[in-house]
Amino acid sequence: MRNKIIIGNWKMNMNTQQLKEFIETVHKHKDEISSSNVIYGIAPVYLHLQMAQSISCEELNIVAQNCYFEEKGAFTGEISISQIKDINLKHVIVGHSERRTLFHESDEIINKKVISLTNNGLTAILCVGESLHEYETGITKDVVKTQVTEALKSISSESMQNVVIAYEPVWAIGTGKTATSAQAQETIKYIREVVTSLYNDEVAENVLIQYGGSVKPNNIKELLEQPDIDGALVGGASLEAASFVELIKNSL
Ligand code: PGA
């Protein structure tokens, strides 16, 4: 049985006071939401990571939204994986569609990040997903196959233990249009087949694959009931502590 993984991607939202209140509320509900097979966490902005890590309990993982692949040096505005490791974080989101489109991150850059993260023993939450145009053209599977294949170049079977894949159709992000659970299941099952073709059945059976795109407390259960969906990457609905707690409760 694979674990479930629910991560709140806060994007460029929240201030330090809101962060503190959020973490306090989640702590109050810790006993109701902690389970040995559900991993959960939040990804605040870089600026708040250290504070979040210092006040958060072990169960509420603090996740970075991005990283740079070089070890150190003249890369103004970036942060390195060793700096993320230095404050004991374990997961980093890479290749989010907003990074791909607004900040022009290529599959090649994303691959470098996945390589550096796994080499450092951190877990890469690798986002893939088709745009609205690609969806309407009927090329979803080709798009995710290319993104997964390119991002996982030079990643060994062993390193795949440190990779989580997040399937996020771009047309469903922040739009209120969720893919139906059947659509999400179909593409995620296909991603698992791509992983089988790149590695083997065992790696594909073990890799956690999340769905993301307008996940809410009222639709997470149905999504997670699908056999290949192992969790959710949640934007908007993760910003309120009560809603975040509901999301986790409905995943148990
Ligand atoms: P959303 O964002 O839940 O607000 O659609 C998801 C994401 O971008 O990860």
Structure description:
By secondary structure, this protein is an alpha/beta fold. The protein contains twelve helices and eight strands. Strands 1-2-3-4-5-6-7-8 form an eight-stranded parallel beta barrel, surrounded by six helices. Helix 11 (220-224) links the parallel strand 7 and strand 8 (231-234). The longest helix is centred in the last third of the chain and has 18 residues, at 181-198. The chain is globular. The chain starts with a strand and ends with a helix. The model has no long low-confidence stretch (mean pLDDT 96). Bound molecules: 2-phosphoglycolic acid (PGA). 2-phosphoglycolic acid is lined by residues 9, 168, 173-174, 212-215, 233-237.
Assembly type of the chains comes to single chain
- Quick one: overall form? globular
Structural class: alpha/beta
Neighbour order of strands in the largest sheet: 1-2-3-4-5-6-7-8
Chemical compounds bound to the protein: 2-phosphoglycolic acid
Mean pLDDT: 96
Radius of gyration over all CA atoms, rounded: 17 Å
Distance between the termini: 14 Å
- Per DSSP, the total helix count is 12
The major β-sheet equals: 8 strands, parallel, barrel
Which H/E pattern describes the elements?
Answer: EHHEHEHEHHEHHEHHEHEH
